[in-house]
Specification:
elongated; alpha+beta; four-stranded antiparallel sheet; about 45% helix; about 20% strand; about 450 residues
């Protein structure tokens, strides 16, 4: 339970920072353009507030429903659906009375702050903690590779020499780079010491996603069983903690990735698992569950098998490195949408529980700020989606107005806002419903 509260506290603090700064991104330009802001809220105040105080024209408060936050700008059709105000003559201090370019800046203010914040966090994280890198020979036993990568020339135990002509120094990123970036060729070093240049298909990311081969590569470590989960297929078959699995259906198991590869790719409903128990070979029939899980828990990856070197940066170097990290994180996140908007991608959408799981079980400031930077980018990108009720929806209608010279009517905006809110709530319920389903089914 302690772990739950630590993760929940990190999630709550991170989202609170992001929501407040996002809304400030709307609040500040609104004030600069002399637009009245009636409310500034962290979390939603459905029926009542935990705290509120009026200063000038604005009520500042904290709601009880932690699903975000909002600023209520006078003369704007938003989630408050204040149609009474909109039925009155427009006032000079209202949003609707301002030129379209000012309204556009106000609406883009939130996501602009999200992106700027992410860049600032990355810069200061790199300046404070530096970075760790792993070169070709730092991965002691090479990588275990997925079947999809085997089909294009990779072999088990390969080490990555270079990616598109650049020396390989990013052990933790090579799999995601194949998923989200355009890579033309990779030079690998096979276990026999020979180098080979492998051409990467343009659709390799799609192949990996459709085949469920993520992660595509994992550092290999000598195979060690950490434990056997009670009442799971392996324990029911008779496997015990301390057993050394040597093969699955005659597929040899020497490394952690060998076992994962065999379980995933050998489609037999019953697997013949051979173990070495106190020097004696024994065979067991294991029936994986519908998700191909057996209840064998592998020992965690040790630094002995994945070495790294540390690099510190001056503040100027941190600006360059942090900006590059921010750029590629944004680009990679946009690239994910080609997978999200598929049947399989939709089933993997997660809500607050999925986000909370990203945080470490112990409070770690570097991890906290790195995740906060990522969530800031995620919040910025999602808010740009052209859905009414999100910033992107308002921007879409403002751009239409600026191009056509015609302003959408208030009634149309009211209906669009309602439709957008329904879509948004449906997405929130769907994502959090996925979390609940995975928790119930152990996914």
């Amino acid at each position: 339970m302690t772990v739950f509260f630590i993760k929940a506290a990190q999630l709550l603090l991170s989202l609170s920072i992001l929501v407040v700064l996002h809304e400030l991104g709307h609040f500040i330009p609104a004030k600069l353009f002399k637009t009245r802001v009636e409310k500034f809220y962290l979390f939603f105040d459905v029926k009542f507030s935990l705290f509120k105080k009026k200063i000038g024209d604005t009520v500042y408060g904290i709601g009880w429903l932690p699903l975000g936050g909002y600023v209520k700008i006078a003369g704007m059709i938003d989630e408050s659906m204040d149609t009474e105000q909109m039925s009155k003559p427009a006032q000079p201090w209202e949003f609707r009375s301002k030129p379209s370019w000012q309204r556009l800046i106000i609406m883009l203010g939130g996501v602009t702050v999200n992106f700027i914040l992410a860049f600032i966090i990355y810069i200061f994280v790199i300046f404070t903690w530096g970075t760790n890198h792993s070169k070709t020979n730092d991965i002691k036993y090479g990588f275990g590779v997925s079947k999809t990568l085997e089909s294009i020339g990779f072999k088990q135990g390969d080490k990555i020499v270079s990616v598109d002509g650049l020396p390989f120094e990013e052990a933790n990123n090579i799999g995601s780079n194949l998923m989200f970036r355009t890579i033309k060729e990779v030079i690998v070093q096979h276990e026999n010491g020979q180098n080979e240049t492998i051409s990467i298909p343009e659709d390799i990311g799609k192949q990996l996603f459709v085949n469920g081969d993520t992660p595509a590569l994992m550092p290999r470590t000598p195979f060690v069983v950490d434990s056997i989960v009670p009442e799971n297929p392996a324990s029911k078959a008779g496997l015990l903690k301390g057993d050394n699995i040597v093969s699955v259906n005659d597929y040899p198991v020497s490394y952690n990735t060998d076992y994962m590869y065999a379980i995933k790719n050998i489609k037999d409903s019953i697997l013949n698992v051979t173990v070495n128990r106190n020097g004696n070979l024994k065979q067991f029939s294991v029936k994986p569950d519908e998700k191909r899980k057996t209840g064998v828990v592998l020992a965690p990856l040790k630094d002995d098998f994945v070495a790294s070197y540390h690099k510190d940066y001056s503040f100027g170097e941190s600006i360059v490195k942090g900006s590059s990290m921010g750029y590629w994180t944004i680009k990679d996140y946009f690239a994910q949408f080609k997978y999200i908007f598929t049947k399989k991608g939709a089933s993997q959408l997660g809500g607050f529980a999925a986000i909370g799981k990203l945080f470490p079980p112990q409070w770690d400031w570097k991890s906290f700020w790195m995740l906060t930077a990522f969530l800031s980018i995620m919040l910025g990108v999602l808010n740009l989606l052209p859905i009414p009720a999100l910033d992107g929806g308002h921007v879409m209608f403002l751009l239409y107005e600026m191009v056509s010279g015609k302003k959408p009517g208030d009634k149309f905006m009211e209906y669009a806002q309602m439709v957008g809110f329904i879509i948004l709530m449906a997405l929130v319920l769907f994502a959090n419903g996925n979390d609940l389903f995975k928790w119930i089914t152990g996914g």
